[in-house]
What does this fold into?
Amino acid sequence: MTDGLSTDFLGGKQPEHERLRKGSLGLLDISAATMANIGPAMSFYFGFGFLAYTAGLASPLTIIAAIVAIAFLGNTLSEFTKVLPSTGGFISFVGKTFGGRTAVTTALMTGAGYIAAMASVIAISGGFFQYLLQYYNVGGLKSVPWILWTLVFLAFGALMMIRGISISTKVAGLFFAFEIVIMLVVAVAALIKFHGYITFRPFEPKNITNGFKGLAAGFPLAVYLFIGWENSAALAEETNDPRRNVPKAVFTSIAIMGFSYVLFAFATIVGFKNNVGKLSSATVPFLSVAHGVIGWGAFFAFLAGLTSTVGALIAGTNSQARLIFNAGREGLLPKFIGEVHPTRRTPVKALLTYLSVSLAIIGVWGLLHILGGSANSASMSATNFFFESSTFGTILVLVVYALSNLALPFYYRKHHPDRFNAFRHGVLPIVGLVFIAVPLYYLAKPGQPTPYDWFPWAALAFIVVAAFYATILVSRDPAIGDRVGSIVADE
It folds into this structure.
């Protein structure tokens, strides 16, 4: 780097203000941010009841299957990052492999998928706080609409993120530390109090309801529990030694979250005395267990759910907005998204665009329910939106995951043939692709209730439009393919 300018691989000059602040984060920072993005309390509170309903007593095996699937994806992300650490993450990896049109299409899919998923997190932050107030019957506050609380938490999160990556990451990390400690306390207390119901039956395949069908039906949600595992890749430019630390953060986060989820699932089943019927019918099974084992202290379990949603909002937006920021910086998306604040060195415009679109999705969703005549308390709840928006977002994100697995062997053969390893770069990503095909099938198969039956078609329509847009854009600017992945994080 010379005279405030950086040189890309084409020999062109890039203004210094287009680069994020290097070396702001260490391994602990990005690992904590990744796990905060996953949001174990938020994800587990709202997801495990359905997993128990689909897979029955052996529902922890669904989570174990998801751990294996995510581990294969972790290999793909790690192998890409070792040779091409990029804030663009999957967008850069896929685009660098298959060219400009695929890069633009992937950028649009990635942005739309993550924004839809983040909209669900933004909504549930206010919705969960409303649930807490109503549960504890807090005077007039319990009647305040959840969307107003959502705006409060959104404003707090935006302020932290705009101030800088270091402080916002630390806030998200502290929130994560609080939630994971509380959940561990509840889980251990449940196992101690109900130790007479401890058995290995939850880990025996014969106890899966409806066999493989039951396991697979809950598999998409089990995978969703881990969404955010890839957080650290988008923070590569601000991480010291990203080629080593990002892969470490990926696998550390997957391992810790995988172990924690299995423990929480097992403790919840034991806490319900192995009665899966009662477990799956509870509003939030883990909170029911918390009340049963620590009494008044269960309030902290409620707070853990709240800090989880806000931590996931901050950590998720931080990383995912950087994906579209990099796409704007490289010309795949509108260039204003790729601008950096001159002093804070944060992608302020990308952050605000990301959050504004997420909020707009919530507004459009509510308006459609009103116009459709289905605006009742159940359909307009934050929980209902959480499941609907996260499902649609997950479909697009899974497609991006699949493309990344497909790209890995081609990328190494094309750009690093001397480093190609048939097992790591050939076998593992193909197996990972097979694992991703399972949740995609169950999310797209016919016969699902409305509006879930619309989502696969909406996702397909979006991909077609994105591909059409990409074709037009690349025809006008053929150099896009050369710019994809041109800004390497540690160069």
